[in-house]
């Protein structure tokens, strides 16, 4: 398996990378989604701009009110990050379930959400975490609320010529009490369904909840009905059972050779409950 | 006298593999070598209107492009090596399997053109410039549908897509009469799904033509280099066999899929002469999914009748076997002589009939895959038994004990003659099941199962299997349609210094022959293991060989080695007798020396070998030298057996099955290297369990393989299994000198039904009385079983 | 469109030119003739191509050679030093962790990465760490034991 011919450019900085892109360029991050697609010739860019050596976007930094995860941070670095484990454990849990050791050592969070595979883990987790996506383009920088980021099947708010430099995770009550649960497709180990749940509990009752699903539909989404149903109640197994109904309502549920629409719909509810119950 | 036999000697071949110095075909580089890429059909069934290679031929680095029409008409294609004729005596339908398609494609992946360039990148790039105009036709992928009136024909001259039909055992009327007397009949319709072998090394072949010597060399990832040479020379290319060298270097697993003679092997040899340069072709994994011969793929209806005491009174089986688009090398033997003949199992069933229809479909060829036919037979029997136990509310272990053939050693007691054309060599079946029950803690498990109440369902499944391996007497297989003999050859060359090189026709691709065979030779000759070297896989050094498959290497290949060693010792004794001035009859050989019985007069093996090559003081009339070769043609198949038990836990909410424990007690006869035998069992178990739980090729109605990559076809991983709990009993094979039966396939043959039975047991215990969960038992399928 | 690269492989620095699309695994196998690193699939699944880049296990079929410019790469050929087997190599031999040997280099490279981060892994941790490495021969049973052997050996010699 050999990609079609392209020009490889190594960027020293994000600004450099944006400048190198041209009309026919694509950004290469960790390459764990892009390179397989290139090898299968499903994707054939003229220019590949490598940002995997841009150290400035690889770090994970704690800034009082939030934690900034660099767009170039690898899944492995997230999986072993103590600050995140304390501030938003679902990120660490999800990172540990992505691909395998080798993929986690190269694959990046920015690359993953830019690719926006409908069965990837990060979209659900970031939706639940109320993250902000930090983006750079030739004109400067912008920030996109995660709720506005995932637009559809492999489709995001990221525009041509833009690079994800970081993801900002609020150090909120709900992120501190968060969990990710995933039912894996046994071959690819992507999510058949994955649910990220983040619940802030104050005075014994749910003050705020964010629950998001991946793998179910064309892109990850929040289940606001469940979030609303939980607020004001104690987080108990009974209340979770009552709050989680059909978490796929209004969504086109995917169907494939491994999981039919009916089964996936069922699993989505099961995993919404399981993610929430991890918080009990 | 057994310093090595029976001991877990660490493998001598390991060093090169753990240091990255293994030499697999794709690792080999030859000066001036070109690289080939094969353009393949994206359609399952289509007429080829035209192929335009003009642009591709002008692409960078392209040396040559050949299509079907460039290949001489005389080269019709690769042959089938086994003929099974129709019940009515009509000859098996055997349409040609061309090296490249000329006018029609018959499965996705059928070859269209070979593009040869200076680099593999150039070959691949150029292949994209070839324009093929197809007329797409309807396809049929299911063997049962293929038999229906009006189904699309795979070959126009094969009516109803039937390659042959076949029947074995007692007449159907006798079986139905016996079935009519049954107090309970268990009937099951099931699919033994299509498996993709997935040896981790993708197939690879290098063709080289040497003009100076007018000689060809083929390096190929094969389990049997000599067989490839014979088939390719005599039946495909019509080139003289003595002018062809075939090398199977280090081979990264085979599991059956590298037995067969593939079109690419003949293509690179033919084309290497055309272009005057060596050509390497290496399969991508995606190509491997489409073109490595698949396994299994049976659709079966089976009925087993029991009398009031639970004794089996009759078995009737009907199977549609999918052959794919062409008949692969051994394909016709798999659903017939390797499947129907095993339906006696371990049981005294008095009436058995099996009826098989072998069908062409628009899919990749199906042939032997680890176990080949025997897993299908075991699956059929063992599913029926556990299901019958559930239906009759009796214990599945007791039901088996009740039906086991009584013990026989094949020496004092005759071998057991089955209703389906075999005579078992030796067997003692109760102990394996008893030992497995003991290991599992059966009574305690049943209590735990009854008490289970945590949203999980626990289940236990059994499988007590027999297989036929060490394949087999040439005369017998010849009578059954094999177009080859199934003996093995060996040569023992003793060097003047007493070091020993052993040339075997068996081929090791993971089995550890370099160690096991050396243990046999070193012990038999009484010399250090380090003094023995095992050489295999090269037709220029090994005189002849039938290769490795059907768990035959030690039973057949090892026996040939023993015969050669004995000939060496026999000749050595004559030399020793001369040196000791005694009669050869008065000598005994032990620990590497000949001693005159009752004296301390002796001569060592080294002195004898030196004398053989420096024959100054030498027996009159005896030839110098100490090289001996032998051919061994076994007297019978060997019949390993065993008992496998699976314990599973089902998550009721999701249908996810967790394999909690797997117990295997196998009897493979005598064991030379326990460590290696255990390793063979482990690997077989993983493949068998993989079939039950994870794997299975899926073609859609248009003939596309919809899970043709590791992203979709689920290869078993480390975290899919618990540690296996294994043990063995030993019932020696009475008819070969080592008493060995073969261990390569046992794990894959026994394990699959145990796992499915365990899931069905769990479901019944949970109140879901389903007969079957189709394999692979994906969570959705198990969940569906709980929705009814 | 060649890219000039300089890569240190098993301690030796190699400087050369590669096309952008050349994968690291092909660079190792074809350009440097280090054929111990294998190719078993085309979907970044099987792990036969696993090597270490700057000390971390990665799939060399899913990295461009150009991306390895300036990096330090260790392949199976660089595991042993001064003619002495690495404990993981010894473990695979002692515990019969290999049969055909094709997956073995990748397995060992992943295992060494695991043991670097977790010196005393449980059986389950070992099984999970091998998620990205396929073996068709061993059923993984003895691979797990091989890694346990290496962990023990490394603990006593550390």
Task: Characterize the structure shown.
The complex is a heterotrimer of chains A (280), B (788) and C (158). Chain A is α+β, with helices and mostly antiparallel strands. Chain A is built from 12 helices and 14 strands. Chain A has 3 domains: 44 residues, Uridine Diphospho-n-acetylenolpyruvylglucosamine Reductase, domain 2, CATH 3.30.43.10; 116 residues, Uridine Diphospho-n-acetylenolpyruvylglucosamine Reductase, domain 3 (2-Layer Sandwich), CATH 3.30.465; 105 residues, Enolase-like, domain 1, CATH 3.30.390. Chain A is globular. Chain B is of the alpha+beta class. Chain B folds into 3 domains: 210 residues, Aldehyde Oxidoreductase, domain 3 (Alpha-Beta Complex), CATH 3.90.1170.50; 252 residues, Aldehyde Oxidoreductase, domain 4; 146 residues, Aldehyde Oxidoreductase, domain 4 (2-Layer Sandwich), CATH 3.30.365.10. Chain B has 19 helices and 26 strands. Chain C has 2 domains: 77 residues, Ubiquitin-like (UB roll); 71 residues, Orthogonal Bundle (DNA polymerase, domain 1), CATH 1.10.150.120. In chain C, a hairpin with a 2-residue loop joins β1 and β2. Classes of the chains: A alpha+beta (280), B alpha+beta (788), C alpha+beta (158). At the A-C interface, β1, α2 and α6 of A face β4 and α3 of C.
Question: How would you describe this structure in keywords?
Answer:
heterotrimer, A: 280 residues, alpha+beta, Uridine Diphospho-n-acetylenolpyruvylglucosamine Reductase, domain 2, Uridine Diphospho-n-acetylenolpyruvylglucosamine Reductase, domain 3, Enolase-like, domain 1, 5-stranded antiparallel beta sheet, 4-stranded antiparallel beta sheet, 12 helices, 32% helix, C: 158 residues, Ubiquitin-like (UB roll), DNA polymerase, domain 1, 2 domains, 5-stranded mixed beta sheet, 34% helix
Can you describe this structure in just a few lines?
With 788 residues, chain B is an alpha+beta fold. In chain C, 66% of the residues are buried.
């Amino acid at each position: 398996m050999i990609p079609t011919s392209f020009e490889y450019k190594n960027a020293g900085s994000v600004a450099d990378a944006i400048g190198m892109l041209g009309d026919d360029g694509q950004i290469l991050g960790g390459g764990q989604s892009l390179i397989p697609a290139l090898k299968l010739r499903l994707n054939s860019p003229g220019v590949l701009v490598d940002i995997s050596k841009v150290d400035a976007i690889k770090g994970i930094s704690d800034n009082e009110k939030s934690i900034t995860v660099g767009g170039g941070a690898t899944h492995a670095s997230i999986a072993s990050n103590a600050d995140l484990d304390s501030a938003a454990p679902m990120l660490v849990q999800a990172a540990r379930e992505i691909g395998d050791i080798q993929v986690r050592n190269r694959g990046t969070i920015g690359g993953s959400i830019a690719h926006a595979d409908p069965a990837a883990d990060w979209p659900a987790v970031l939706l639940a975490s109320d993250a902000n996506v930090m983006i750079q383009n030739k004109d400067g920088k912008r920030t996109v609320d995660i709720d506005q980021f995932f637009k559809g099947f492999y489709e995001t708010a990221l525009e041509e010529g833009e690079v994800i430099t970081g993801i900002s995770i609020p150090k909120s009550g709900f992120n501190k009490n968060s969990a990710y649960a995933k039912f894996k497709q046994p071959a690819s180990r992507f999510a058949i369904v994955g649910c990220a749940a983040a619940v802030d509990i104050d005075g014994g009752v749910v003050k705020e909840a964010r629950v998001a699903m991946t793998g179910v539909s064309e892109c990850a989404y929040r289940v606001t009905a469940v979030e609303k149903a939980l607020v004001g109640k104690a987080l108990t197994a009974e209340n979770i059972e009552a709050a989680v109904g059909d978490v796929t309502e209004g969504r086109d549920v995917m169907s494939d050779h491994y999981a039919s629409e009916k089964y996936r719909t069922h699993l989505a509810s099961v995993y919404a409950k399981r993610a929430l119950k991890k918080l009990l | 006298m057994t310093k090595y036999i029976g001991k877990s000697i660490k493998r001598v071949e390991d060093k090169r593999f753990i240091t990255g110095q293994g030499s697999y075909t794709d690792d080999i580089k030859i000066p001036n070598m070109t690289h080939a890429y094969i353009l393949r059909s994206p359609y399952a069934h289509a007429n080829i209107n035209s192929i335009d290679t003009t642009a591709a031929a002008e692409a960078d680095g392209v040396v040559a492009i050949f299509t079907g029409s460039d290949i001489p008409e005389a080269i019709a294609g690769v042959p089938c090596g086994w003929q099974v004729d129709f019940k009515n005596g009509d000859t098996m339908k055997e349409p040609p399997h061309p090296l490249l398609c000329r006018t029609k494609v018959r499965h996705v992946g059928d070859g269209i053109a070979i593009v040869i360039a200076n680099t593999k990148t150039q070959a691949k790039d150029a292949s994209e410039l070839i324009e093929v105009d197809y007329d797409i036709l309807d396809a049929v992928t299911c063997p049962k549908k293929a038999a229906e009136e009006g189904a699309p024909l795979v070959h126009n001259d094969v009516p109803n897509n039937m390659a042959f039909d076949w029947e074995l055992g007692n007449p159907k009327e006798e079986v139905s009469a016996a079935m009519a007397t049954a107090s309970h009949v268990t009937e099951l319709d099931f699919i033994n799904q299509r498996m993709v072998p997935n040896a981790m090394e993708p197939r690879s072949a290098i063709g080289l033509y040497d003009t100076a010597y007018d000689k060809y060399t083929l390096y190929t990832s094969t389990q049997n280099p000599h067989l490839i040479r014979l088939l390719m020379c005599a039946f495909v290319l019509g080139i003289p066999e003595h002018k062809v060298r075939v090398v199977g270097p280090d081979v990264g697993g085979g599991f059956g899929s590298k037995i067969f003679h593939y079109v690419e092997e003949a293509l690179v040899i033919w084309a290497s002469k055309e272009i005057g340069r060596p050509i390497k072709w290496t399969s991508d994994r995606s190509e491997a999914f489409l073109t490595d011969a698949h396994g299994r793929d049976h659709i079966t209806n089976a009925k087993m009748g029991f009398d009031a005491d639970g004794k089996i009174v009759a078995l009737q089986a009907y199977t549609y076997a999918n052959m794919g688009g062409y008949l692969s090398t051994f394909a016709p033997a798999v659903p017939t002589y390797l499947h129907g003949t095993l339906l006696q199992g371990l049981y005294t069933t008095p009436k058995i009939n099996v009826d098989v229809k072998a069908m062409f479909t628009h899919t990749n060829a199906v042939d032997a895959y680890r176990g080949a036919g025997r897993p299908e037979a075991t699956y059929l029997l063992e599913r029926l038994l556990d299901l019958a136990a559930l239906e009759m509310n009796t214990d599945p272990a007791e039901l088996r004990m009740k039906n086991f053939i009584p013990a026989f050693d094949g020496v004092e007691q005759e071998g057991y003659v089955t209703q389906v054309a075999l005579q078992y060599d030796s067997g003692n079946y109760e102990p394996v099941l008893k030992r497995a029950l003991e290991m599992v803690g059966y009574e305690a498990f049943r209590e735990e199962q009854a008490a289970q109440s945590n949203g999980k369902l626990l289940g236990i499944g059994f499988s007590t299997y027999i297989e036929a391996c060490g394949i087999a007497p040439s005369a017998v297989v010849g009578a059954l349609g094999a177009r080859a003999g199934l003996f093995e050859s060996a040569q023992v060359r003793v060097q003047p210094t007493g070091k020993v090189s052993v040339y075997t026709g068996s081929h090791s691709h993971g089995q550890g022959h370099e160690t096991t065979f050396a243990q046999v030779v070193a012990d038999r000759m009484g010399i250090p293991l380090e003094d023995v070297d095992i050489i295999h896989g090269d037709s220029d050094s090994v005189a002849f060989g039938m290769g490795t498959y059907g768990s035959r290497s030690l039973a057949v290949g090892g026996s040939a080695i023993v015969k050669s060693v004995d000939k060496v010792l026999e000749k050595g004794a004559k030399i020793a007798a001369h040196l000791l001035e005694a009669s050869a009859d008065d000598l005994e050989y032990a620990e590497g020396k000949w001693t005159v019985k009752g004296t301390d007069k002796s001569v060592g093996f080294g002195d004898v070998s030196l004398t053989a090559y420096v024959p100054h003081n030498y027996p009159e009339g005896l030839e110098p030298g100490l090289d001996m070769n032998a051919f061994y043609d076994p007297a019978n198949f060997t019949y390993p057996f065993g008992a496998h038990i699976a314990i599973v836990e089902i998550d009721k909410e999701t249908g996810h099955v967790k394999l909690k424990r797997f117990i295997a007690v196998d009897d493979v006869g005598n064991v030379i290297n326990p460590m290696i035998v255990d390793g063979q069992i482990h690997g077989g178990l993983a493949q068998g369990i993989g079939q039950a739980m994870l794997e299975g090729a899926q073609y859609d109605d248009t003939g596309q393989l919809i899970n043709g990559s590791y992203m979709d076809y689920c290869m078993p991983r480390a975290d899919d299994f618990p540690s296996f709990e294994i043990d063995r009993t030993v019932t020696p094979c009475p008819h070969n000198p080592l008493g060995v039966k073969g261990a390569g396939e046992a794990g894959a043959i026994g394990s699959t039904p145990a796992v499915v039975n365990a899931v069905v047991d769990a479901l019944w215990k949970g109140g879901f009385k389903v007969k079957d969960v189709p394999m692979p038992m994906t969570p959705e399928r198990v969940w569906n079983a709980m929705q009814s | 469109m060649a890219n000039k690269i300089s890569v240190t492989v098993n301690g030796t620095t190699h400087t050369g030119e590669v096309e952008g699309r050349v994968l690291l695994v092909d660079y190792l196998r074809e350009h440097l003739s280090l054929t111990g690193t294998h190719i078993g699939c085309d979907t970044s699944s099987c792990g036969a191509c696993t090597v270490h880049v700057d000390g971390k296990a990665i799939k060399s079929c899913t990295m461009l050679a150009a991306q390895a410019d300036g990096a330090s790469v260790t392949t199976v050929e660089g595991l042993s030093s001064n003619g002495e087997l690495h404990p993981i190599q010894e473990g695979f031999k002692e515990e019969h962790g290999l049969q055909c040997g094709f997956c073995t280099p990748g397995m060992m490279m992943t295992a060494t990465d695991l043991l670097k981060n977790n010196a005393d892994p449980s059986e389950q941790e070992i099984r999970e760490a091998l998620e990205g490495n396929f073996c068709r021969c061993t059923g993984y049973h003895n691979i797990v034991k091989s890694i346990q052997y290496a962990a023990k050996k490394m603990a006593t010699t550390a």
